[in-house]
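Practice problem 4.
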């Protein structure tokens, strides 16, 4: 995107990724410590890859705002501000940063290792903010937060990131780079 204007195509693409995230949030498996396994992070990763840093972050800001005002886009067809100030709120709040970082990596993908590095940075940012908020609100140690919020999810995080990367990069090729990724 050469200028800062958002086109109709941008708006539609952002809306589609926001909607995909809302749908993927409904694929949720409850976990013992209260942090569910969802497909939201798959959608956030896909958003950063397909839309790029700026649009990917915008789509996640819209998703977070919709959830915060009560639209049932979060896991379990829920919504409301209470989800953002609870133990899993940090994960949700970090979605725009995660999409942005992954989008930056997508733009740098021709530089050896940069895409993977930013994919890891984006995922790590999601975990860091999520664990921090979990630990503060639950008055838990870092180790407790790590074992509740990260350790059980690492295998699926790798699988979701790999699948979103393969799909997202293929979508870019199929779209023929119609949009100039930012």
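Answer key:
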């Amino acid at each position: 995107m050469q200028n800062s204007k958002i086109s109709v195509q941008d708006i539609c693409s952002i809306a589609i990724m926001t909607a995909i995230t809302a749908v993927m949030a409904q694929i949720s498996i409850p976990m013992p410590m209260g942090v569910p396994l969802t497909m939201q992070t798959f959608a956030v990763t896909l958003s950063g890859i397909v839309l790029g840093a700026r649009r990917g972050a915008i789509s996640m800001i819209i998703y977070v705002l919709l959830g915060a005002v009560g639209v049932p886009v979060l896991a379990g067809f829920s919504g409301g501000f209470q989800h953002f100030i609870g133990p899993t709120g940090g994960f949700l709040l970090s979605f725009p940063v995660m999409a942005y970082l992954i989008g930056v990596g997508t733009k740098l993908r021709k530089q050896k290792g940069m895409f993977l590095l930013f994919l890891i940075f984006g995922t790590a940012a999601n975990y860091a903010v999520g664990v921090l908020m979990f630990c503060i609100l639950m008055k838990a140690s870092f180790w407790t937060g790590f074992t509740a919020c990260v350790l059980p999810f690492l295998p699926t995080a790798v699988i979701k990131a790999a699948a979103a990367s393969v799909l997202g990069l293929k979508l870019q090729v199929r779209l023929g780079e119609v949009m100039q990724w930012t």
